[in-house]
Amino acid sequence: GDTPLIRIKCLSELTGFDILGKCEFLNPGGSVKDRVALKIIQNAEREGKISRNTVPRCRIFEGTSGSTGISLAYIARSLGYEAEIVLPDDTATEKSELMSKMGATVIKVRPVGIANRLHYVNVARERSRQFELNNINDQSSSTKGSGRSLFVDQFENPLNLIAHYEGTGPEIWKQTKGKIFGFVSGVGTGGTLSGVGGFLRSKDPDVKIIVVDPPGSGVFNKVKEGVMFSETEVEGKRRRHQMDTVVEGIGLNRMTYNFTRSIDLIDDAIKVTDQEAITMSRYIVQKEGLFLGSSSIVNLVGALKFCKKFNLERLKVVCILCDGGQRNLSKFWNDDYLIQKGFRIDDHLSFDPISYF
């Protein structure tokens, strides 16, 4: 928490707005998910669901595509818990390696839809249930209370959005001195958008809440059409994975509790293509020296597109810089990988973002 809010100079000068980035990649675990992980663990401790440094140790379970798992791994280790993370096997390798280095058990499963019992979230839930059952059956009276499990359930857990309503949102309001025109965010679970958006709207009903959406996600169409579907579903294609995109960490194809809470807050939705995200990432690192992850970059593209709609100046638009580029080296920041996938690595010396996006 208490991360800085910085002005993205190059985009601000192009649009006349003050485009501001909340540097969540500076949290100890490297992403905005630190807030959620810590909130859920601390609440479970207060309710007596888990206890630190027991023998056997309590274990924290979660199904995630990356950043939440990293946050849980380091927080669990520091507080005396075990962590077990289930993730899709096409997640960037550096993410799973980080979790393992911090002592987490990493389980990789093939990417399938949420209705499948082998979806990473469903596998994590079941493994948590089995772990607790086994320990209850095995424990003697002397170890009662140890070896408990906690399934984090970030998609459906209300503490996800509460972490942002009580933390991230008030920080942004204070840092902008209550002068904010718009808030731009992608949706992974919906917690950031619902929590921050809900707090800002409670302080100023005129704040614009904008959601940005990468390829393969149904959020844009949910906002625009009222039905949650993606282009690939419309075309009748069978997708290999829920998110047919090089962007990791955002995008959603189901109505989670945390996303549902944001529906009435959202003013507009903006699509961002993979190519736009790739191009913006290289532009930002050259102009600002910011080495950002794909989710952060999608938010910046969305902020730029939003600001282009208005002939206004010096109004503040805030987006979340939720992750750094270090955990995207094998895919999003790998030029050879992207070229093999058919993407361009543009020449930024003669690049004009206003006409491009």
UniProtKB/TrEMBL annotation:
Keywords in alphabetical order: Membrane, Mitochondrion, Mitochondrion outer membrane, Transferase, Transmembrane, Transmembrane helix
GO biological process terms held by the UniProt record: cysteine biosynthetic process from serine
Annotated Pfam families: PALP
GO annotation, cellular component aspect: mitochondrial outer membrane
EC top class named in words: transferase
Known EC number: 2.5.1.47
CDD domains: CBS_like
Recorded topology in the membrane: Single-pass membrane protein
Domain (Tryptophan synthase beta chain-like PALP) ranges: 1-323
Catalysis: reaction(s): O-acetyl-L-serine + hydrogen sulfide = L-cysteine + acetate
Cofactors: pyridoxal 5'-phosphate
Entry superkingdom: Eukaryota
Record's subcellular location: Mitochondrion outer membrane
GO molecular function, one term: cysteine synthase activity
UniProt family annotation: Belongs to the cysteine synthase/cystathionine beta-synthase family.
PANTHER family: CYSTATHIONINE BETA-SYNTHASE
Protein name: cysteine synthase
